[in-house]
């Protein structure tokens, strides 16, 4: 819910812009940190969800580590001040330049996604006289029951080392003097709302940990990835149930004493703390459809066009009236998929009304583009 004060503030700002509620971010962080502390779990923030500087600083101050997926994310994490002992680097295609950069920054660990990558990191580390800490990202073939395009842990996906390649991994690890094996890593998908999925993941993690330990590789770190979903249907449900989520891993992981459990959460931390605020340019009444044409498009928020993702849409200028008209809410971009919602029930809407598109904190601003030579996306912050 936006306060009247928020809406009055929006009226003076040039649209479209991402509006970040920093107090909500703070509350989400506190909830996450408190819930993880109960089991002494370590949380890394998946920077890919949102690398806005202001957010990153708050996340770092809350004590989280950083899960990075490119050389630039690693660099940024260090620049923002994340403790390098809490920076991990994942990614299915790390370039030599990116690996060298991360070696030079002495990050905590590389999450390695193929046998070939292990050999490359060993070679590059040797040239720099370094020993790289590595965790093997394993593809556990566990169905995340989420949108097909954001599923990552099935045999058909490109991510991680498949179980049948693990013996080769073990062989490379044995002969690689410049690699230190520290553990195993998993990430099966994003926007997971059925928590039972994580129980299945735990069962597989226990099997793989045993596999490595039996072959003489102590598993010091179990990195279970991220994926905890948020409630897009109900953005007022602001903070995910971190306690229930962490409890599953406590109950189902066969954790040895002194073994660390690491998480890489993105969406659950930042997803609800932002809305995309846009203005109505035109209202077009067609024969069978009414269109609201916004000044924001898929260039600002790509998720609906890319994944048919649902985001709640509100007319902020008509808070009290009855929602009685159905509109297709679209952007100005030259693509038919540039649509934020079809048949959205709203109050009678006119040119100039402010529209709020909710739950855009994760994979929103970071996925914006310049297609159609659009301007850089603007941002505004509030601390209530
Ligand atoms: N760890 C790894 C290795 C990942 O690939 C991801 C996300 C995460 C952690 C964080 O996942 P989260 O906690 O945020 O679910 N653009 C898509 C989502 C892509 C997710 C990519 N990987 C979307 O808008 O839904």
How would you characterize the overall build of this protein?
The chain has 384 residues and is of the alpha/beta class. Helix content is 30%, strand content 23%. The strands form two sheets. Strands 1, 11, 12, 13, 14, 15, 16 and 17 form an eight-stranded mixed beta sheet that branches. The protein has an eight-stranded parallel β-barrel with strand order 2-3-4-5-6-8-9-10, surrounded by five helices. The chain is elongated and about 70 Å long. The site of ligand LLP has 22 residues, from β10, α10 and α11.
Main features:
EC 4.1.1.20; 11 helices; eight-stranded parallel barrel; eight-stranded mixed β-sheet; 30% helix; DAP_deCOOHase_LysA; alpha/beta; binds ligand LLP; elongated; 23% strand; diaminopimelate decarboxylase activity; lyase; Diaminopimelate decarboxylase
Order of helices and strands: HEHEHEHEHEHEEHEHEHEHEEHEEEEE
Query: Count the helices. How many?
Result: 11
Named CATH topology of the largest domain: TIM Barrel
Mean pLDDT rating: 95
Whole-number count of domains? 2
Compute the separation of the termini in Å: 13 Å
Helix content: 25-40%
Described by the principal axes of the CA atoms, the overall outline is elongated
Cofactor: pyridoxal 5'-phosphate
Catalytic activity: meso-2,6-diaminopimelate + H(+) = L-lysine + CO2
GO biological process, one term: lysine biosynthetic process via diaminopimelate
Pfam families: Orn_Arg_deC_N (PF02784), Orn_DAP_Arg_deC (PF00278)
């Amino acid at each position: 819910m936006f306060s009247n004060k928020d809406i009055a503030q929006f009226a003076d700002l040039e649209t479209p812009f991402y509006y970040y509620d920093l107090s909500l971010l703070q509350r989400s962080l506190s909830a996450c940190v408190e819930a993880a502390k109960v089991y002494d779990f370590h949380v890394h923030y998946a920077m890919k969800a949102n690398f806005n500087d202001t957010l990153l600083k708050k996340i770092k101050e809350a004590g989280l580590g950083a899960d990075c997926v490119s050389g630039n994310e690693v660099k940024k994490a260090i620049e923002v001040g994340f403790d390098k002992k809490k920076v991990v680097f994942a990614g299915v295609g790390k370039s030599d330049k990116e690996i060298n950069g991360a070696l030079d920054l002495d990050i905590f660990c590389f999450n390695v996604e193929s046998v070939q990558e292990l050999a490359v990191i060993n070679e590059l580390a040797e040239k720099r006289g370094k020993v790289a800490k590595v965790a093997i990202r394993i593809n556990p073939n566990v169905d995340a029951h989420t949108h097909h395009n954001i599923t990552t842990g099935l045999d058909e996906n490109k991510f991680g080392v498949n179980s049948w390649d693990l013996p080769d991994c073990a062989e490379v690890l044995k002969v690689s003097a410049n690699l230190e094996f520290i553990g195993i890593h998993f990430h099966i998908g994003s926007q997971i709302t059925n928590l039972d999925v994580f129980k299945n993941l735990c069962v597989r993690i226990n099997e793989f940990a045993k596999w490595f330990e039996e072959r003489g590789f102590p598993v010091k770190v179990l990195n279970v990835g991220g994926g905890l979903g948020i409630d897009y249907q109900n953005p007022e449900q602001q903070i995910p149930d971190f306690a229930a989520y962490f409890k599953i891993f406590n109950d189902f992981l066969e954790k040895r004493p002194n073994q660390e459990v690491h998480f890489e959460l993105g969406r659950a931390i930042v997803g609800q703390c932002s809305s995309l605020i846009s203005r109505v340019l035109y209202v077009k009444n067609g024969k069978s459809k009414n269109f609201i044409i916004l000044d924001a498009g898929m260039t600002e928020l790509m998720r609906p066009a890319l994944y048919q993702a649902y985001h709640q849409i509100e007319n902020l200028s008509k808070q009290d009236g009855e929602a009685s008209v159905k509109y297709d809410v679209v952007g100005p971009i030259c693509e038919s998929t540039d649509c934020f919602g079809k048949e959205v029930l709203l109050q009678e809407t006119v040119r100039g009304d402010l529209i709020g598109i909710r739950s855009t904190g994760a994979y929103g601003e970071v996925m914006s583009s310049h297609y159609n030579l659009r301007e850089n996306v603007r941002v505004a912050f509030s601390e209530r």
